[in-house]
Fold this protein.
Amino acid sequence: MPGFVRQADGPGSAPLPAFAALWAETWGRFVASLPLMLPVAGALLFLPQLIVQRFAMASGAPAQGLSPAVLLGLGVLLAGQLLAQLFASLTVVGRPGQTVGEALGLAARRAPAGLAASFLQSLALLPSLPLLASSDPGLRLLGLLLFLPGTFVALRLMLALPAIADRGDGPLAALERAWRLSSGRVGPILGQTSLVLLGLILVFLVASGLAAALAAIGTLAEGGPSERWSVGRWLSALVTAATASGITVLFAQFVAVLYRHLAR
């Protein structure tokens, strides 16, 4: 399977490459893996997001609560994101010669460990989120004080998913490996990851603006708001789902590239 490079065992002490080199490698792998990723991302990311958007619009106002169809769609979407991220990681750290089916099967077998590791990683940020959403300034300040160290911990643990894809570690072993690999390198990891995230957020904002414009054009073309999905609304959903799918794959591959260099 093109693009699958076996990762050596054991961490080394080589410094991280410059951001330009890391990004060039990530983008190169993203482009090279498109023939492999397109059907997988389409099935696991794009289609579920499109379905969730469609049913969310049909379920009415948020105050009415989410319908069972939307909740089911969100569950499928989260499961698809996990599988897609593991598959994307395998395009960086996987065994040479794997077929799409073999890699997807491997991602599925390692998904339970990935789910557990992702949940444990999220606990670093979870306590701060309700406080940050509070209307009380004191609670928001406390949330910020918890969010900063939580971000530090979550950043160091984000390498767990490519470790699971690469080695088949259990969740605790993968988190321990991620913590060890990032030891003494948090500054460079934070800087390079922040640059990538800022760029991806900018791309998503531009795509969201385009999607909103398409939806507005569709509404105007129909003479006003309608419960029926216009062509503009469909185009808006397609743009949003495609952009979010691409961002998910690209960031997962960037984290896997980071992991590959740190684990040398």
